[in-house]
TrEMBL record:
Upper taxonomic lineage: Bacteria, Bacillati, Actinomycetota, Actinomycetes, Pseudonocardiales
Sequence ranges assigned to domain YdbS-like PH in this UniProt record: 76-158, 426-495
Membrane-spanning intervals of the chain: 55-75, 200-219, 245-269, 380-400, 406-423
Matching InterPro entries: UCP026631, YdbS-like_PH
Name used for this protein in its record: PH domain-containing protein
PANTHER family given in the database record: UPF0699 TRANSMEMBRANE PROTEIN YDBS, UPF0699 TRANSMEMBRANE PROTEIN YDBT
Alphabetized UniProt keyword annotations: Membrane, Transmembrane, Transmembrane helix
């Protein structure tokens, strides 16, 4: 059988003499172990509960097929770089071929996980900037999951700096004919003093929540009661004999300490040895990580702006983080997950220095135009109505006997906090048009200031809901082929919003405007 997956046509004549390279064979010592670990639930089920049952052999066969597939992938995968494209072939029974034009390559993401670092290997992810939003494998991306670190860096330099294809066929040794990595200019490096911002990122809260959810799930499935442990029984008894408010204070303090410790640990693991450098070829190079190291390159020609993120706890501590708005970056849950993090949580002043160094100016520090007071009323109304609806729903459940009285009373206590959040959301609204950049800011709990090149805009969308029309407000949506895909100027005055859109994209809205 043969399956061909190509992003473009097959290589043209005259490029067939480029040498083929194979994945590093040392991956054969790791891949079978990883496949066995992934198949461990099936394997244990077959061995422990499948004595004399036919499905025991099905479980064993499934594990053997998984290990065989992994080994064959390492043995049969090969790639080469011609003058026009990158080709990749793999497969024994099911053969796959893929090719990507070199002029479409936008990123080479080099990641070295613990399984790679054991043998000084890395995974090179070659991307074109197109995303499939998680719908199956990305056919515009090649992943070379077992190359040496030197080979991964050679590929990054070769593909991003548009050098000629090297004549050498050795993939693990650099020669005089291969392109040398250009010298780099340091833009930013992590400072140990920035660890004080880690607890304010609340990243440890997600770890605690995931751990509690996992333990509860397994305990529920196994019909296991954790109170059976003497230690747990002692702690529960202590809290039962303590006044409620004291128990809540102690629990909150313990949770705060645990979240802070986990957040500091996560900061160290993620941003250890963080370095942002600029190469003479016009590329920003980002390296970070302690156990899993990651190296990402961003062509400055693909840079469409930056976004300064200021979550409420981090903002109160005087910190922020900076994310690139660039085409070709893999998007994850959060822009920093996709590799475009230009600076981890750090002092706001340092963030603006990095923005100025990357863009040549700092539009994010420009004074912003405030939005009309009608935008304030919309935010206060939304915040108050949300709390009142929640309180009414809880009161209804209490009236039906499904809940006690205190939940809806607690919801009403949140009303002043909702008003404060609504007021802060209005204070955060703002926009500006400075030079060639459009600046927009919004949010309270997770405030973001986006700086987008006007030349990078692919259009302008003017959106007005029923209530916005009554209030004389509009929301401008500026699509851009990078970052989140679009950014919004929320609840700006109708006249000011249309004028801003016309200045950001001159002539685009002219047929629809009345002067």
């Amino acid at each position: 059988m043969s399956s061909v997956e190509t992003a473009v046509a097959l290589p043209a004549e005259g490029t067939q003499d480029a040498p083929w390279h194979h994945l590093d064979r040392r991956m054969l010592l790791i891949r079978p172990v990883l496949d066995l670990v992934k198949s461990l639930p099936v394997l244990l089920g077959a061995l422990l509960f499948g004595h004399g049952e036919p499905w025991q052999w099905i479980g064993l066969a499934f594990t053997a097929i998984a290990v065989f597939t992994g080994v064959s992938h390492v043995l049969t995968s090969r790639y080469r770089i011609t003058e026009s494209q990158v080709e990749w072939h793999t497969g024994l029974l099911l053969r796959k071929q893929r090719a990507i034009p070199r002029d479409r390559i936008r990123t080479v993401d080099v990641t070295s996980e613990p399984k790679h670092r054991l043998f000084s290997l890395a995974a090179a992810r070659i991307g074109t900037g197109r995303h499939n939003h998680g719908k199956g494998p990305n056919k515009d991306e090649l992943v070379l999951d077992a190359v040496t670190v030197a080979e991964a860096q050679r590929l990054r330099t070769l593909l991003l700096h548009r050098k000629a294809v090297p004549a050498s066929s050795a993939s693990s040794e650099a020669t005089a004919e291969e392109p040398a990595a250009p010298p780099e200019q340091l833009v930013a490096a992590v400072d140990k003093r920035w660890l004080r911002y880690a607890p304010f990122t609340l990243s440890g809260l997600a770890v605690v929540g995931a751990a509690v959810g996992t333990v509860y799930h397994f305990a529920h499935e196994l019909h296991f009661d954790p109170v059976q442990f003497s230690l747990v029984r002692t702690v529960v008894g202590h809290f039962a004999d303590t006044p409620t408010w004291v128990s809540l204070v102690l629990a909150a303090a313990g949770l705060l300490v645990l979240v802070s410790v986990l957040s500091v640990g996560g900061y160290i693991l993620s941003f250890w040895n963080f370095r942002l450098t600029r190469e003479p070829a016009g590329t920003l190079h980002i390296r970070r990580g302690l156990i899993t190291t990651r190296s990402v390159s961003i062509e400055e020609d693909r840079l469409r702006g930056v976004e300064v993120r200021e979550p409420l706890p981090l903002r109160l501590a005087g910190g922020a983080r900076c994310v690139a708005i660039a085409g070709g970056l893999r998007e994850g849950k959060g822009a920093d997950k996709g590799g475009g993090l230009l600076l981890p949580p750090a002092p706001v002043a340092r963030v603006h220095e990095v923005v100025a160094s990357v863009l040549g100016e700092d539009p994010a520090a420009t004074p912003l135009t405030r939005h009309p007071r009608r935008a304030l009323y919309r935010r206060l109304t939304r915040a108050v109505i949300g709390v009142l609806v929640l309180a009414a729903a809880l009161y209804g459940l209490s009236w039906l006997g499904a809940l006690p009285d205190w939940p809806w009373q607690v919801a009403l206590v949140l009303l002043p906090f909702a008003v404060l959040v609504g007021w802060d959301r209005y204070r955060g609204l703002g926009h500006a048009l400075t030079g060639r950049y459009l600046v927009t800011r919004s949010g309270s709990l997770d405030r973001g200031t986006a700086v987008v090149q006007c030349d990078g805009l692919t259009g302008i969308v003017v959106e007005r809901s029923f209530f916005q029309r009554r209030a004389g407000l509009v929301t401008l949506i500026v699509p851009v082929a990078a970052g989140k895909g679009h950014y919004k100027v929320l609840d700006v005055g109708e006249v000011d919003g249309l004028d801003l859109a016309d200045r950001a994209a001159p002539g685009l809205l002219a047929p629809f405007l009345e002067r």
